[in-house]
Structures are given as structure tokens and as C-alpha cells.
From TrEMBL:
Superkingdom of the source species: Bacteria
Family matches, as Gene3D superfamilies: 3.30.1490.300, 3.30.420.40
Protein name in the entry: SHS2 domain-containing protein
InterPro entries membership: ATPase_NBD, FtsA/MreB, PilM
SUPFAM superfamilies per the UniProt record, alphabetical: Actin-like ATPase domain
NCBIfam families: pilM
Amino acid sequence: MLRLYRKPNKGLMGVDISSTSVKVLELSVKSGRYWVESYALVPLSEGSVVEKNILNPEAVGDSLERAINLANTQTVNAALAIPTSMVITKIIEMDADMTSDEREVQIRMDAEQYIPFPLDEASLDFEVIPDRLSNPNRVNVLLVATRIENIEARSEVLELAGLSPKIADVESFALENAFKVFADTLPMGVKTVGILDIGHSMTTLSVMQNNKVIYTREQVFGGKQLTQEIQNRYGLSFEEAGRAKKTRALPDDYDIEVLEPFLEAVVQQAARSLQFFFSSSQFNEIDHILLAGGNANIPGLAKLLQQKLGYRVTIANPFLQMGFSPQIDIKKIENDASSLLVACGLALRSFD
Ligand SMILES: Nc1ncnc2c1ncn2[C@@H]1O[C@H](COP(=O)(O)OP(=O)(O)OP(=O)(O)O)[C@@H](O)[C@H]1O
Ligand SMILES: [Mg+2]
């Protein structure tokens, strides 16, 4: 599997830094089954991470440290995720008959063609894809690259919290890894699955085809819009509005005046995301949509999307077939499950 950066490791904690929270999660394998050993989700103060850029590493490091203490984790070794939009992936055709070292030299020589920044600022990895090409002497190679500074910004935060970063993965690959462990809970015959992650500032559509990620696109749209609308209308602070939206402790006109227009915007955004996918691929249909991200918790949203889009929509839960250690609050993790896909995919790297 691809990693932008790696050291030998065993147990790994998945650490997902998003714009509203840090999430940590540890898994184990017992009796042929995955178990969640520890997990925590700690909110970040507004502005610490903006559209996936870490603006305040100290604040994020503090929240991460709190998450580790809350979760009561077993290891300091961690896997982190680089946002997909910060990564370049490219499929290149090469000679089949090359050693890994020869391939690396060749890729580095040609990399300028593929990477729009200086090579000495890049972290690269590559993997031969096991597809058969019409010419048996050639193979496809998947190249992934990011700026070293993207890895360093995240590693720094982990180190501030006393962790030792061992793997930097790409967010979309972590998602794919998480998807694989619960893909068999989807109805039979489902092959093309859209994972629609509606977060705080971003909405990401990722498409899985036969358990492989084939498409990812981020749009600037999310729950932040709803929080801001609540703030403006009812004169609340950002934090108050964020809380009120979950507890629903809001005036009577909230549903019709605020929530419904937001839900309409979500439907439009989802339809647009799908349209982008269809127009940039050979697909014009998908079999199923998994709703992910914090907004998946809005009651009735999955059903509304199913009605309006005409595809089966369910809420993503990577833990459907997993066990939970006694220290896990099962009710809480069920609530957070749709936001924990990336953390889960990262933690699964322990078992590569
Ligand atoms: N029960 C709920 N009702 C309404 N909104 C909710 C609920 N639970 C969470 N949210 C919203 O979901 C968003 C957080 O979701 P998530 O954790 O997926 O975002 P994120 O990954 O931090 O953001 P981004 O993906 O933009 O970086 C926030 O806007 C939050 O207010
Ligand atoms: Mg997110």
C-alpha cells in the first residue's frame, strides 16, 4: 500500500485532523475480528484549522493531547492523513522489467513532468498496479507526491502532543481502507459507491468502484453555513450556535426558516457533486450513496437525499462488524461513526 512516508511500526493510532476536531482511534484484531480499543474526538477552536490548513499548530497540538488522554491510548505511534487536494496522483506506464530501485531512479528523472513544484521539496511514493496491459512488457505505476511541508505541518502537531508519526497516508486512500472493512454490509450487487462526506467547511464526494477509490472531489460547502445562519438569526456566538444545532434548543421557526433552506442547499450540492463525477467519468449512475461527516447526523437527511437524488442513501458506519473494548462508550461512537472513517482507515494501517 502507498505511503508518502514510513518507518517500521506495529500498533498505530489513526490521527485525523479536520477543521472542527481532532479524532484519534486505535484498533486491534482478536478472534479474527477488529476491535476498537480506544477513540476520542475533541473539538478545535474556530480558526485553528481552516479548509484543511493548520493555522495554529499549538492549539491543535493541545486538543490532540487532550484527545489522547481522553481516549486512554496504548501507543505513541501514529498514522496521519494528508488531504487529498494536497496530493498529486498520476498513473505512468513503465517497463515491467525493472527493480524497485531502478524504477525510483527513472521516476525521479521524469518527475518534473508530473509534479508542479521542485523535486527537492517533494515527498514521493509509487506502487506497481497489478492491472494487465496489452503489452506484457509494460506496467502501470501509481505515483503519489506531496510537498514535504504538508507532511511536516501535520507531523509537527503530532510531535507537540508527544506522538511519533510513522505513516503519512493520503486521505482518500485511508477512506478506501475504511470502506473495505464494511463494504460487504452493503446490499448484494453494489459495485459503485459514492461516499458523500458533508463536513464543516468541505463536502467531498469520493467514489469507490470494486473497493478502489476512483474519484475524489472537494467543494467548499458544509455545516458552517448552517451555524452561521443560526448565529445571524438568533444572535448567538459561533460556539453557542454549534451546540444549539445539535441539541435543537432553538425557537419554533428554526425548522422552516433555517434548517429547511440549508437541507435544500445540501441536496443541490450533492446533486452537483454527482454531476461533476458523471461528467468527468464514463459513469452515469452509481449504485449506493454512503453519507459521512458530522452532518450525516442531521435527522432525516439521508432519507431526504434518497428521495431527491433517487439513489439508495445510508449512513456510513465503519464499525458495523467490529467489537468494542469496555472503555468505549458505544452510544457515543455510534453517533460519531460517520465522522471517523479517515481515523479508522489510518488505524487499519497497523495490520498491513
Ligand atoms: N447532530 C448534528 N446536527 C447538525 N449538525 C451536526 C451534528 N453533528 C455534527 N454536525 C455538524 O457537522 C460538522 C462537523 O462535521 P465533521 O466532523 O465531519 O467536519 P470536519 O471534518 O471537521 O470538517 P471539514 O471536513 O470541513 O474539514 C459541523 O458543522 C457540525 O456542526
Ligand atoms: Mg471532514
